[in-house]
Amino acid sequence: MDTKWSLPGPGSLAGRRIVITGANSGIGYASASALAAAGADIVMACRSLERAEPAAERLRRAHPDSTIEVGALNLADL
User: Which of 15, 44, 60, 63 is the most buried (most CB within 10 A)?
Assistant: First the structure.
């Protein structure tokens, strides 16, 4: 019995725009990277633009075919 398996990828997301909160670090960054690798354009919604811009630049270099934008979003501030 062959026990090798892998999780399916998201398929092609070319032409899709996805907004990800907290995309400058952790699981948000990993999600942004995986979705950009699948061809999606990413909007990084982050509290700190100072921390988001370097992360966005890393994503732009890693995924030049995707558009990576940064927007300020603080969900704790009503």
Answer: 44
